[in-house]
Every structure is written in C-alpha cells, then in structure tokens.
Amino acid sequence: MDKILSDFGVQPILLAAQIVNFxxxxxxxxxxVYKPVLKMLAERKKKIEEGLANSEKITSExxxxxxxxxxxxxxxIEEGKRIINEATENANMIMTEAHTKAKSDMEAMxxxxxxxxxxxxEKMKTEVKSEVAGMIAMSLDKVLGKSLDSKSHQxxxxxxxxxxxx
Length: 166
Hints:
Elements: H1 2-8, H2 12-144, H3 150-165
Helix pairs in contact: 2-3
C-alpha cells in the first residue's frame, strides 16, 4: 500500500495531518458557523410561517370586512328603496287628496253657481212678472181709459201671466 501511495505522491504523515486539520476545521465550523446559521434559518423559517399565518388571518379578516361592507351596502340600498317607495306612496296619496279636494271644491262652486243662477232666475222671473204686470196695467188703463186699483191690477196681471204660460 505504501507503493501505491508513493506512486500517487501521497505522504501518509501529511495525509493524516490534513485529515486532523479537516476534522478540527469541521468541528470549529460546526460550532461557530453551522449552528448559528441553522439557528438563523430556523428563526427565519418561523418568521416566514408567522408572516404566512398573519397573511391568511388578514385575508380572512379582509374577506369578512368585505362581506360586512357588502351587507351594509345591500341594507342601505334596501332602505333607500323603502324610503323612495314611501315617498312615492305619500306623494300619490297627497295628489289623490288634492284631486279629491279640488273636485269637491269645484262641485261646491258649481252648486253655489247653480244656486246663484237659480236665485238670479227667480229674481228675473219676479222682475219680469212685475214688468209684465205693469205693462198689462198700462195697456188696460189705455184700453179701458180708466185707472184700476192695485188689487185689480194684480188680479189681471196674474191671470194674464197664467194664460201666457199655458
């Protein structure tokens, strides 16, 4: 075996020293570098996992907030529709009441107008009767040549009016 090692140019004492140096270096690196690096990687992994958990938590909270927001928007829309419907119903009711009041006022005015017309008609009839009676009385005075008393005038005027109506 010595011949093989010497053929390759390997010296056993140097090889043993290099192996010891490598093992010492490995132990030093493990104590000083490897463990702190693994600890740092474990902490970083833990932080990343916490970040992911927080991200999921925030996402779920955001979804819940979105759902509540949409619910509130839907409620507001429904409330708006209800208010609009109530306002429309109130407006229609007010319009109906206004139409009813205007119609009743118009009917009352029409009735009052009819009564005024009837009163004027009666007044005109009375005036026409008295005018006709006066004309008849004047005609009779001229025809008869004498003046009649007021009772006679009245009686003749009424008889004449009855005959004109028939």
